[in-house]
Specification:
Layout (H helix, E strand, L loop, with lengths): L5 E8 L6 E8 L2 E6 L9 E4 L4 E4 L1 E6 L12 H10 L2 E6 L10 H14 L3 E4 L15 H4 L16 H13 L3 E4 L16 H6 L7 H17 L2 E4 L5 H12 L4 E5 L1 H5 L20 H13 L4 E2 L14 H4 L10 H10 L6 H16 L13 E11 L18 E11 L2 E5 L4
Parallel strand pairs: 1-4, 1-5, 6-7, 7-8, 9-10, 10-11, 11-12
Antiparallel strand pairs: 1-2, 2-3, 5-13, 13-14, 14-15
């Protein structure tokens, strides 16, 4: 008797060496065949994908799953289910936790929950410094094989010597330093934004130089050390240009931006906590530079910075609410609606930004070629729907996309050949 397989029939394949309409056979967590008209047996699970797009499942290298320590905001179970609904098979969890994953022992507190509750692959970050305080370097050698990278996300490493030491140590172990870039002495109290809206409404904000000034420093250190350096959630035109020039010189620098920075600018801001995040929305000129960056390859990937908070923490208005919005369940649809369908980038390019490039940079398994781990997303690029955060799997409900019409949605997500989300059974 033939072994049972999953066969995806008739989809249009993107992000594979075999492009166009074809069938895909999956067996024992791997893609074993891609061809026209694969013959199925009665034991096979056949998924009809005619009229749909089949691509490598997405990877988000920047999410906040909030456990351990802040389970009232999000749990690994709910966050990973939200990710599966959004087409993701892998997410990388930031270290803003309690305990901070700054040692093997503290990391285990998080990994135990991941092993128990995660619906998809979760790769944790370790902190760069003990307690994310910027004062003492973690044991990178001890943690390297257990994490995807090292980051003090939420805090920029302020001292030049500390970041240089981190990069020097990271090179010894071929580790990635992923930086939230923010010069604390340039912050302006209110954490809103640094544009015309802030001035008109009396808000104080985060100036652009607080980001690009530290990126400039870090690029110099990465060039000196040879470190693999990744810049988190870039938002300014100066940052884009610094990274573009560094790449041209051969610096090992990569970066991400978020869907909201590509779709909105400060002219869209409202007196509502749905518009409160860090970095803030910048000017239309900054947004245009980010779009150019994703078009020319300066920006390697798109990550959501999914940052859930409780309703109470996000009910204090634009000025006083916690910083952060959710994004896992809307990212593909928002980007398809606002970038692909408007002709700004192709669907192929969006798959590169959401799946292929993050896998390459962070060394994450999975793809859509024979022999790859079967992490697959099936997409209806034409489906029209309206975002309603009450339907989210995530405990976080705060997004500026709430109530907006979208085009394109995830039909099914597979991880290791297992169906982890099916829109028909939601």
């Amino acid at each position: 008797m033939d072994k049972a397989r999953i066969i995806i029939k008739g989809g249009t394949i993107l992000g594979s060496s075999r492009q166009g309409k074809a069938d895909i056979a999956i067996e024992q967590e791997r893609i074993v065949e891609i061809a026209e008209n694969i013959t199925s047996t009665p034991n096979d699970h056949v998924i009809e994908a005619n009229g749909l797009v089949v691509a490598p499942a997405f990877v988000d290298v920047h999410v906040h799953l909030r456990e351990p320590g802040f389970g009232y905001k999000e749990r690994i179970a709910t966050g990973t289910m939200a990710a599966a609904r959004g087409g993701y098979s892998t997410v990388c969890s930031m270290p803003n936790l309690n305990p901070v994953p700054d040692s093997v022992e503290n990391l285990k507190a998080q990994q135990d929950i991941i092993d128990r509750d995660a619906k998809i692959e979760v790769l944790p970050y370790a902190a760069i410094t003990i307690g994310r305080k910027g004062e003492e370097l973690v044991d990178i050698e001890a943690l390297k094989g257990k994490v995807c990278a090292f980051s003090d996300d939420g805090s920029g490493v302020q001292h030049d010597k500390m970041m240089e030491a981190a990069m020097t140590e990271a090179v010894k172990h071929d580790a990635i330093i992923a930086a939230h870039c923010e010069v604390e002495e340039l912050l302006r109290g209110g954490y809103i934004h640094d544009g015309e809206y802030a001035r008109q409404h009396g808000h104080k904000g985060i100036c652009s130089e607080s980001e690009w000034g530290q990126v400039e420093r870090d690029i110099e250190l990465a060039e000196k050390s040879g470190c693999r350096y990744h810049v988190c959630h870039i938002s300014t035109k100066q940052t884009v240009e610094l990274i573009r020039k560094a790449k041209a010189r051969g610096v090992k620098v990569t970066c991400e931006t978020g869907p909201h920075y590509l779709i909105f600018s400060d002219i869209d801001l409202q007196e509502d906590a749905r518009w409160k995040m860090n970095p803030p929305l910048r000017s239309a000129e900054d947004r245009a530079a980010l779009i150019e960056g994703i078009k020319d390859g300066t920006i390697d990937m798109i990550a959501t910075d999914h940052a859930p908070h409780s309703i109470e923490e996000k009910s204090r208005g634009l000025k006083d609410s916690a910083m952060g919005i959710v994004g896992l369940e809307t990212a593909f649809a928002a980007l398809n609606t606002h970038l692909v369908r408007k002709g700004i980038i192709s669907l192929d390019r969006l798959v590169e930004l959401m799946s292929i490039n993050p896998r390459k940079v962070f060394g994450i398994e999975g793809g859509l070629n024979i022999g790859d781990r079967a992490d697959v997303v099936i997409i209806d690029t034409e489906k029209e729907w309206r975002v309603d955060s009450r339907d989210f799997y995530s405990m976080g409900k705060i997004t500026m996309f709430d109530g907006r019409d979208m085009c394109g949605d995830v039909v099914m997500t597979l991880h290791r050949g297992n169906i982890v989300y099916d829109s028909k059974t939601k």
